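Two entries, shown back to back:
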Amino acid sequence: MLALATALLVSSPVGAAFNGPTVAQPATGGGFTGPGPATSTVKEALDMRDDTPISLVGNIVRHIGGDIYLFSDQTGSVNVDIDTNKWNGQNVAPTDTVRLDGEVDRDWLNVEIDVERITKQ
C-alpha cells in the first residue's frame, strides 16, 4: 500500500513539478560603483610603493613598443603597460585626455603603471 501511494505521488503532476529549492543566480556584469583611488600625479606615482592602486589623468604621448606606452601629465612622464584587451575598442590620440586606473609596478630600477582601465575624458 505504501509503495502504491509513493508511486502515485511521484507520477502525479504535483510531484513532478517540484525540482528542489530555488537558488538565486548571481548577477553578472556588476561591480562596485563607489569612489576608488584618488587621482594622483606622475610625480606622486614615482614615489609610491609597489602594487599601490592609482588613477592618473593626462595623455598617452607615444608607443614605446609591445604593450608599453609613455604617459604624461603636468608633473612628468612614466611608462604604462596597457594590455590589448584594456583598450575596449577606444582609439586614443596623444591629444586625448585619458584617465588610467591601475597599479604601480616598481622594481629595482624602474617604476611603471600596470593599467587596468582606460577612460577618455
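entry 2 starts here
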Amino acid sequence: MKRSNTIKIDLYNLAQKLVASKIKENTESLAALKESVGSETKSTAGDKHETGRAMMHLEQEKVMRQLSNNQKLKEMIGRINPETSDESVRLGALVITNQVRFYVIAGLGQFDLNDEKYYLVSYQSDLVQAFKNKEKGDMVHFKGQSHRIEEIF
C-alpha cells in the first residue's frame, strides 16, 4: 500500500474516533441532564425552579440535536471507503496542494500526521466548494491564494 493510502486510512480512522468520542460525550451529557431534571424537587422559589427546569430542557434539546448530527456524521463517514483513490476533489478525497493538505470527510479541524498538517473538512465547506471536481494539476484561487493541486488520493 502506498504511503498516501496509509495517511488517508489514518485520517479516516481519526475522523471515526473523533465522531465516536463526540457521540459518547453527547450521550453522557444527556444522561446527566436527565438525571438533573429528574432529581429536581419543587422548591419554594416557584418561578426560579420552573426557569431552571426550562433551561435544563433547552440544554437537553441542544445536546439531542448534537447527538443526532453526530450520528448522521458517523453514518456518512461509514459510507466512505478510505482505500479507494480519487481523481477529482469530492467526498472521501485526500487533496495535496502546494499550500494545504485536506481530507474531505467532515469538519473536524486540523491535525498533525507524520510532521505534516492536515485539515479534516466538510464537503460543504467553502474550501471544498472552491476545489470541487478539480483534478491533479489544476489551479484553484481561494481567499486570495493560488493553489496548485499536486496530488489527489
